[in-house]
Amino acid sequence: MNRLDYIVLFATILAIPLYGIWRTYGHPNLRHYLRGDHSIRWGTIGLSVMATQAGPITFLSMPGQAYESGIGFIQNYFGQPFALIVVCAVFVPIYQRLKVYTAYEYLGKRFDQKTRLLGAFLFLVQRGIAGGITIYAPAIILSAVLGWDLNLTIWLAGGFVIAYTVVGGTKIVSLTQRYQILVILVGMALAFGIAVYRLPSDFSFSNALSLAGKMGKLGAVDFSIDPSRRYTFWSGILGGFFLSLSYFGADQSQVQRYLAGGSLRASRIGLLFNAIVKVPMQFLILLLGVMVFLFYQFEKPPIFFNQPTYQRAIERGHGPQLTALETQFDDVFIRKRDALQALPKASAAESETLTAQVREFEAQARTIRDNTKKILVEAGANPKSKDSDYVFITFVLQHLPHGVVGLLVAVIFCATMSATSAVLNALGSTSAIDFYRPLIRPKASDHHYVVATRWLTLAWGLVAIAVASFASLVENLIEAGNILGSVFYGSILGLFLVAFFLRNVRGSAVFFAAVIAQTLVLVLFFTSNIGYLWYNVIGCGLVVLVAPVLQLVLFRNDPPAAIG
Amino acid sequence: MSEQDRPPFFGTWRKAYAFAIALFAIEVVLLYAFTLRFS
Q: Average model confidence (pLDDT) for chain A?
């Protein structure tokens, strides 16, 4: 990165929060601080929901995912439109009618105080840790490839977010997210355009797609019912539906986004906007990864993208083995490139032979890379995230023009800041509304609660930075974040589904059902090897099944809730 | 449902949801066509 890149980077990441502070500075009452005002319309809500979901990992890891395994991952989002429609039809009208600040406040009105506190507690534990991971994951990658100090990078991303989220509350979060996501979309579109432009001149865009298809990168939809396949249409519809329903219906960091402004119509249109644009947006991000893959068919890629880890293994005495592998890798790359360059002018019969050769060379290259990884593990070089996470940032830093590099690094920061601000805003609000107000100061002034929410938001920001600073102790952080979500989301979703659809179940039954479900999920997590996405389904299913049984057997005489 | 809570272009929210699902179905069909064309 040169001076121009740093100017673009700092101008972008500073200008948006400063504009937000200028637009929102004042003395808001509690309602305005937690839900914003009527100036927040559906467009802002739609972009804000999109920005909250699309954290930095989306933009760092997704292109790398497509580079390694193709675009089949898109199917994971197929359940989302259905989940968003359920949220629009069932969740939003109730939240808006009851004018709740947090989703868990609704649990208190529908069931009782202990169920509300349980839902809020599970959310705080899960999101409190996940907020730190959202800051840490891009920081470890950026600090590795740019040579920045890790703690400085964590504070650079985290410090700004804490400052403006504490000052402006929900309104500033929604406002800044609107501009941050626009910067992100422009940056990704530029990277896409440049990746296509940098392909060899005798390969048209259509030829390039055909080539990627022949190399197995463009299988977007797979209707197979084979359970061993990782991404299929069916697993995407079912698994994606439950995951999205928990995330959009019961996670305060999303609920607070679409309740901003207080209009039922704006909330619904903002969510439907996401139901329609999410799949095309993810498709283009994954296709960008395929373009980067094609680019590296003609330009030699590093044998291992995470170069600091690779260098560490060399320093620990594994240089000769790695050099031998690199020589083999270079040889395979040159032979593969020669076959690819002959493709546009080949006859149909020659084309088939050449394609078979290219696939063979690709398989050889993959084996060499796998052997490299084994040596890195033997060397104890210990990479903290998958090598594919480094593919896109390596492409950006080494092959994009100055200025655009600064913009793309700003994209990663914008994504980190937008996702983290939503999380901190939700953590502060939930601690203040669901714990502080009912348990510590039940009858204070509006102003007092605004100040308390600000202090609690600041405290959660410091927790997130502390988690990020100590996160290097955990192996593969990004995976850890996904696992954490799956372990807690199921029980929380179960509480809400019982609240909405099982009218006869009351507080004690659902509370103990959720405690049983969460305990069982934690036992399974520590003792079994089942795929982590299943925890979500198991947790939710247990609450929905056990709560009515407990109601019938143990809590038949419980008084009904205030609202049904 | 109050007048200001009605969806734009559609008389009811049910029609708006059906439209969103129809658009999603078209997206999946296009993705499948893309898969068949390039795989």
A: 88
Q: For residue B3, what is the nearest residue in chain A, using CA coordinates?
A: A265
Could you report the per-residue pLDDT of A104-132, keeping only the tens digit for each? 999 999 998 999 999 999 999 988 888 88
Residue A486 is encoded by which pair of tokens?
Answer: 């799956």
Q: How far apart are the first and last CA of chain A?
A: 59
Which ranges constitute the DSSP H helices of A343-473? 348-378, 391-399, 404-430, 446-470
From CA A393, how far away is CA A386, in angstroms rounded?
Answer: 13
Q: What number of CA atoms fall less than 13 Å from residue A223's CA on the CB side?
A: 7
H, E, C per residue of A28-69:
CCHHHHHHCCCCCCHHHHHHHHHHHHCCHHHHHHHHHHHHHH
**Looking at the partner chain, which of B4, B24, B37 has a beta carbon nearest the beta carbon of A265?**
B4
The answer for residues whose C-beta is within 8 angstroms of residue A376's C-beta and 6 or more apart is A304, A309, A310, A313, A318, A383
Distance of residue A283 Cα from the nearest chain B Cα, in angstroms: 9
- pLDDT digit string (tens) for A473-499? 555 555 676 677 778 888 999 999 999
ipTM: 0.93
- For residues A5 and A405, what is the distance between their CA atoms, to the nearest angstrom? 6
Sign of the Cα torsion A490, A491, A492, A498 reads: positive
Q: Which of A105, A104, A86 lies closest to A268 in space, CA to CA?
A: A86
**Nearest C-alpha neighbor of A33 from the set A455, A464, A460:** A455
For residues A506 and A483, what is the distance between their CA atoms, to the nearest angstrom? 30
pLDDT at A474: 58
CA distance A86 to chain B (A): 9
Question: Is A210 part of the contact surface with chain B (CB cutoff 8 Å)?
Answer: yes
For A551, how many CA atoms within 13 A lie in the half-sphere containing its CB? 19
Distance between CA A212 and CA A206 in Å, rounded? 10
Interface of A with B in 139-158 (CB under 8 A): none
User: By C-alpha distance, which of A399, A1, A412 is closest to A197?
Assistant: A399
Question: Burial, A370: exposed, middle or buried (Cβ in 10 Å; 0-12, 13-18, 19+)?
Answer: exposed
Measured over the CA atoms of residue A177, residue A100, residue A90 and residue A548, the dihedral's sign is: positive
pTM: 0.90
**In angstroms, rounded to a whole number, what is the distance separating the alpha carbons of residues A438 and B16?**
39
Which amino acid appears at position A178 of this protein? R
